[in-house]
Amino acid sequence: MKTGFLTAAGVAAALMLTGCGGKTDGPGKAAEDITAKSSAKDIGAAYINEMTQIADALDTVDDEASAKAAAKKIKAAVDGLNQMSEELDGEISGVKGMQIFGGRYTELIEVQSRVATSMIKIQSDHPELMDTISAEMDQLEN
To answer: Which of 21, 71, 80, 141 has its CA 20 to 30 A from that of 43?
Structure first.
């Protein structure tokens, strides 16, 4: 149980420090649409969208079946985030990073807080489900 709590805390901390890009505001846009030439607005929107998908999935976890269903949704969002990270590797300057999240800071903090809170709640209420969830969350690259 101690390891599960540390995993939850570690994942929450990693998510708070993650600064990779995201999804556009428009319908039908996805993380895989992001390239090094994408606008700061599109990157920020995609990132927040993918993180929201993770938060929404975590909010549904209360038993083994819901944890497995959430893990599938988390995997898709994590794959999108990792793909964006690879696409944008080394292409985001400090200024562009500020442009990406500067205007969306409140949204960014809210979604990352939702993820962290859900992970801690799952660890507290259903520690036996952490392995199912953590297996996907651990795939999130820096």
So the answer is: 71
- Distance separating alpha carbons of residues 79 and 117, to the nearest angstrom: 22
How far, in Å, CA of 121 to CA of 79, rounded? 24
User: Which residue blocks in 27-104 are alpha helix, DSSP H?
Assistant: 40-59, 64-88, 94-102
Cα–Cα distance list, 44 to 83, 102, 141 (Å): 14, 9, 17
| Mean pLDDT computed over every residue of the chain | 79
Of the candidates 11, 7, 136, the one whose C-alpha atom is nearest the C-alpha of residue 80 is 136
pLDDT, tens only, 42-51: 888 999 999 9
Q: Which amino acid is at 136?
A: E
What CA–CA distances, in Å, run from 123 to 63, 73, 97, 133, 137? Answer: 12, 19, 32, 10, 13
Compute the C-alpha angle 31/34/35, nearest 5°. Answer: 150
